[in-house]
Amino acid sequence: MYLQRTQVSTRTGTHAKIETIFHQLADRHKGQPEFVMLTVFHALGHPSKYEIHTRWETREAAETYRKSPETAAFQEKNKIASLVTVDAPVQGYTATTLVGDQDEAEVVAIIEWTLRLPAVKPFEVSRDELAKLRQKHAPGFACSELFRWMGDPINQLLLNGYRNIADYDASESHEEIQAFQKDHAASLYTDLNRPSARERYEIIVRG
């Protein structure tokens, strides 16, 4: 599976309008060849910050849609460029770990990891094992999904989803989860000069 990630911030006074457009965007994707799912995340700590994750069977299908005249016409009709600032170039990822079901999540932590190159595979294996422990022991666990950036495998995107914020806050309390994290500390895999970036989001569109 291919994940296309877009990060934007709303301009002053455009919050309500852009969320309406996000819902229209989800409707537009339905029925597109090889389209899987579109999710819009709204940062809990930064009201102007959003992420749009669009999942496709292949990268080719995603790029065909993104570059189509119909997409350009939709953006022009809705004046999207005047409503948001694009915070980063569109990024493409491939899925490596998918545990659980994002449809059950309401709150998601999105974590960007920068790894040391020899540690890429061991990190991916460890996150899969940790996800399965959370699925077994963490209250309100919904999903854990790991994606590898196609530009460089040392850059990875982790989504941990829970049914509500209280479950998210309590998720690390089980002794098996704590023991695993102690034995598989981030320092074993990551570039210590480039610490991970973590942000919590609510899901506002799922289509």
Layout: helices, strands, pairs:
Layout: E1 2-10, H1 15-29, E2 35-43, E3 49-56, H2 59-66, H3 69-77, H4 80-83, E4 84-100, E5 107-114, H5 120-137, E6 141-149, E7 155-162, H6 165-170, H7 175-183, E8 197-206
Antiparallel strand pairs: 1-3, 1-4, 2-3, 2-8, 4-6, 5-7, 5-8, 6-7
Structure description:
The chain is of the alpha+beta class and 207 residues long. The protein folds into 2 domains: 2-93, Alpha-Beta Plaits; 95-198, 2-Layer Sandwich (Alpha-Beta Plaits), CATH 3.30.70. The chain has helices at residues 15-29, 59-66, 69-77, 80-83, 120-137, 165-170, 175-183, and strands at residues 2-10, 35-43, 49-56, 84-100, 107-114, 141-149, 155-162, 197-206. The chain has an 8-stranded antiparallel β-barrel with strand order 1-3-2-8-5-7-6-4. β2 and β3 (49-56) form a beta hairpin. The longest helix has 18 residues, at 120-137.
Summarize the structure.
Helices cover 33% and strands 38% of the residues. The chain has 207 residues and is α+β, with helices and mostly antiparallel strands.
